[in-house]
Amino acid sequence: MQGVLTGFAVIAVVIGVGYVIGRRDYLGDNGQEVLTKLAFHVASPALLFTTLAGADLSEVLSTRLLVTAMSTAVAGGVFVAVGIGRRWGLGRTTIGALCSSYVNSGNLGIPIAVYVLGDASLVAPVLLFQQIMVTPIALTVLDLSGDGEQGPLWRRLLTPLRNPIAVGSLSGVAVSASGLRVPGPVLDTSQLIGGMSVPAVLMAFGISLCGSSLPGRGTDRAPVLLSVALKAVGQPLAAWALAVSVFGLHGAPLLDVVVTAALPAAQNLFTYASRYRVAETLARESVLLSTIAAVPVLGVVAAVLG
């Protein structure tokens, strides 16, 4: 439980700094937009490149990752089905599906993996899966659903290659798969720039909370509550059921996959929503509420399965 509280405390402090920046207007009217663009176009691609360039791609084929992938599909699929039925729109439904299933495996998953599971490397397969598979697919859908994405079919099919997040992820995977070693100066520079990613995302999120109403009460009430319920309860339950009934996991491996699934929605989802100017309120409120809900959920999971 100490690891859960430590991870959330770090995030809360940085978000609080962003909130103070917004309240004091230190960065002006466009502070949130500048931080979002910095994270999306520069810092996050650099962070993903350095992370994936040194990753062991063989971990992608682990049983635990299969459970994570399937539980992600279940939670996201439920939201997509409801979104189609309620006609929430392609962009809104895509962001909602991400908020329902895309876990915070980086800045929150790592400390929790260390303190609760005892091994930070356990979140690496999830990070790889989300950045190699989920993020490029989701951002491509958002690109193609926008009014500005027009032109011949070949240009639309190459959309992922023009997206900085996807380019950073795929470049890192290519380096790792080739066995090449990134030169020291290049790696150091990428790490330095990538270090801005998490603080920029969290502070932009904190700035966005200034003047906002209480979450779950506006026009996005239904999709927000659905995404939070799926993220906080639906995905962990799906992971537990799949791990036990399909893969026969128990003990530490079972705890690993359920804790991973119970992590809240990642703050960078708000960055994506802001970048494409779609469902920003849905992303902000879903991330906030799922982060709050994850504290008792992770505590229960650790107590029952630990």
Could you describe the 3D structure shown?
This protein is mostly helical. It has one domain: Na+/H+ antiporter like fold (Up-down Bundle). Helices cover 74% and strands 0% of the residues. The chain contains 14 helices and no strands. The termini are close together.
Largest sheet properties: none
> What's the CATH architecture?
Up-down Bundle
Mean pLDDT score: 83
Count of separate DSSP helical elements = 14
Q: What is the number of E strands?
A: 0
- Domain tally: 1
Helix content: over 70%
Low-confidence stretches: none
Shape: globular
Terminal CA distance = 10 Å
CATH topology: Na+/H+ antiporter like fold
Global Rg: 18 Å
Instruction: Kindly provide the name of the CATH class.
Output: Mainly Alpha
Please trace the helix and strand order, writing H or E for each element: HHHHHHHHHHHHHH
Strand content: under 5%
Structural class: mainly alpha
SSE layout and pairing:
Layout: H1 2-24, H2 31-53, H3 63-86, H4 90-101, H5 109-117, H6 124-145, H7 153-157, H8 164-178, H9 184-194, H10 197-208, H11 221-245, H12 252-262, H13 268-276, H14 280-305
Helix pairs in contact: 1-5, 1-10, 2-8, 2-9, 2-10, 2-13, 3-4, 3-11, 3-12, 4-6, 4-11, 4-14, 6-8, 11-12, 11-14, 12-14, 13-14
Short description:
This protein has 306 residues and is mainly α.
List keywords for this structure.
306 residues, mainly alpha, Na+/H+ antiporter like fold, 0% strand, globular
